[in-house]
Design brief:
The chain is of the alpha/beta class. It is built from eight helices and nine strands. Strands 3-2-1-4-5-6-9 form a seven-stranded parallel β-sheet, sandwiched between helices.
Length: 265
């Protein structure tokens, strides 16, 4: 059996305290990587996860707060990363936010909030990580996008636009950093159930998703994280500049769920 080996690797996962990010942290640690868990507001979850990684997998793990949309906080976070890990081999740009608004009611501040986290944050972290990876002449950057980097959706003009930008950012980054042996990949999940959206999905109707998704069901975090670990490993050494959709073929069907946000009166 071929095992994913990340022993000796140092990884940073933004938005790593919960959801897909937390499962990525666990999987990277299970493969031997030391993990730096970034969070913005979920301090207790991040610290509890760090302790779990150290206890269960015997790796080093840290929880550090930073708003990745702010360059000064990103620089400070990487300063702490340098002090704790000394280097970085893997960056997972996972942190993201979304909201639903009719495009004609969308406030500039809301547009900026989504773009600053979902796109600018990935740029700021990639720039800091990339500078360090260039010194090592190796590294992997994975940007967690969404099927909505390709599929438009009503009410999510700002979110879809940011994710579309993230996909192209990944390609440009891969092109510029390839000569430094730094790989960049965009990974776009579809409908994935997490502890954060489980109740919302149940209220909306699991059976609707099961009907819409060609695979017949919603995905789970355990079907995303191992793929990320593989892409971070030497087994994926010739994969860069591309995108991977983990969606049960949802991208190939017509997206039928639609909040149809009403105009404010």
């Amino acid at each position: 059996m071929v095992e994913i080996n990340l022993k000796g690797k140092k990884a940073l996962v933004t938005g790593g305290a919960q959801g897909i990010g937390a499962e990525i942290c666990k999987t990277l640690a299970s493969c031997g990587a030391d993990v730096f868990i970034n969070y913005r507001s979920s301090k207790e979850k991040a610290e509890r996860l760090a302790e779990e990684l150290k206890t269960v997998y015997g790796v080093n793990a840290w929880a550090i707060r930073a708003d990745i949309s702010k360059s000064d906080e990103v620089k400070e976070m990487f300063g702490q990363l340098d002090a704790c890990m000394g280097t970085i081999n893997i960056l997972i740009n996972n942190a993201g936010v979304e909201s639903c608004h009719h495009v004609l009611d969308l406030e500039e501040s809301e547009w900026d909030k989504i773009f600053n986290t979902d796109l600018k944050g990935a740029f700021l972290c990639s720039q800091e990580a990339g500078r360090r990876m260039v010194e090592n002449n190796s590294g992997v950057i994975i940007n967690i996008s969404s099927i909505h980097d390709t599929v438009p959706r009503k009410g999510l003009t700002h979110y879809c636009s940011a994710k579309g930008g993230l996909k192209m950012f990944s390609k440009c980054l891969a092109l510029e950093l390839a000569e430094n042996n730094i790989r960049v990949i965009s990974v776009s999940p579809g409908a994935i159930e997490t502890e954060m959206n489980k109740e919302e999905i149940a209220a909306f109707g699991v059976e609707k998703f099961n009907h819409w998704i060609p695979a017949g069901r919603i995905g789970n975090v355990n079907e995303v994280a191992p793929v990320i670990a593989f892409l971070c490993s030497d087994m994926a050494s010739y994969i860069t500049g591309t995108e991977l959709y983990i969606d049960g073929a949802y991208l190939l069907s017509t997206i039928q769920y639609d909040p149809r946000p009403q105009r404010n009166k």
